[in-house]
Amino acid sequence: MRFDSPGPRRRLVSLTALIDVVFILLVFFMLASSLITWQAVEMGAPASTTAGTPVVGSWLVRVRTAGLDLNAEEIAAGALAGQVAARIGEDPEQRILVQSAPGVSLQRLVDVLDLLRDAGATHLTLLRR
Fold first, then answer.
1. In what order do the strands lie in the sheet with 95-100?
2. Other residues' Cβ atoms within 10 Å of the Cβ of residue 94
3. Where exactly are the structural domains of the chain?
4. What is the pTM of this model?
5. Which of the listed residues 47, 76, 108, 121 has the most CB atoms within 10 Å of its CB?
6. Nearest Cα residue to 93 out of 63, 128, 119, 58
């Protein structure tokens, strides 16, 4: 009686190589992300709903899709930084109210907040629409 021997066994796919590749990618992205400089904009919630920010003497910066307004006058970003820096030099406690118009992207608003912070403004208040 003749028995046929089964053909060669199929090799199982080893997951070791796949795990190694995933681990190397994980390490790469962990190292790459630690080299990125993260900057945060500190924002705080109001103390209460009845407490308001004093508006007397405050400057109002409106961020529009087409440009910027400082106290209802259109202004360029560079000129805004210069005026804010000059004013902060005179009065370090100068409050600046920032309001975004409808349709303004969050990135544009953060860019304006960074511009004001770089100009030396420390008392920034973000107004809701």
1. 73-75, 68-70, 59-63, 95-100, 123-127
2. 17
3. 59-127
4. 0.61
5. 121
6. 58
